[in-house]
Structures are given as C-alpha cells and as structure tokens.
Specification:
Blueprint (H helix, E strand, L loop, with lengths): L1 E4 L5 H12 L5 E3 L8 H11 L3 H4 L5 H5 L9 H10 L8 E4 L2 E4 L7 H4 L2
Parallel strand pairs: 1-2
Antiparallel strand pairs: 1-3, 3-4
C-alpha cells in the first residue's frame, strides 16, 4: 500500500499526487494537517525517510522562526515535538510504500520508490 502525506494547498504535493496517479497508483491520502502525526508516527516516518528531524522541518515557516528552532543546540527531539504540535512545520509531500518513504521534492523523487 502506498500513502501520501498530502497538503492540497501545496503545488508540489498536488504534482506528486498527480504523478502517482499517472503511474496507476491511487495512494491512501493522509491529510496530515487535519490528522496530525503523533510523536511515535513521526519518528517512524523519519526512519523510513532516513532523514533527521532537522532535514524534514520547514525552515521557511513563521512558526519555525517564532519558536527559535534554528538556534544552535536545538535537538531532533525538540524539532519532532514542534512538528507534532504544529504539523505545517513538516516538509511535504511524503510518499510511503512499505518500509520506505521519500520526500516528493521534486515530485520525481517518488519514482525511485514506485519503480523499485
């Protein structure tokens, strides 16, 4: 089963979903802004992505700046807690297939997951 952590307002997320559908894949759509991930789910997702929390956080969001998350010494655990509390801090889209996941930036990244 393939799933996509999707934000319909994000052009890259829409493009990634369209690319999956072009390839004949109708993924489970997870609207993560409406149904936020808990700490364990986000840690699991980071493991599948093989990324650190610092690599998944959206640094351009105002909440990132307001929470001073870019300061030296901010731990992955602090970033994970912030992303759980404020899911729009999570980079998107994320496509998961089995025990692997990729970030759909650019959308073509998902091809390595579905063509494998």
């Amino acid at each position: 089963m393939t799933s996509i952590y999707h934000n319909p307002r994000c052009s890259k997320s829409r493009q990634t979903l369209a690319l999956l559908r072009e390839k004949g894949i109708e993924p489970e759509i997870v609207l993560y802004l409406e149904t936020p991930l808990d700490n364990a789910a986000l840690v699991d997702l980071l493991g599948k992505l093989q990324l650190s929390a610092a690599q998944l956080v959206r640094r351009s969001e105002q909440e990132f700046k307001d929470r001073n998350l870019g300061s030296p010494g901010t731990s992955d655990q602090q970033l994970i807690a912030a992303m759980v509390e404020c899911p729009k801090l999570i980079e998107r889209p994320i496509v998961v297939a089995g025990n692997r996941a990729v970030l759909g930036r650019p959308p073509e990244n998902v091809l390595e997951l579905i063509d494998a």
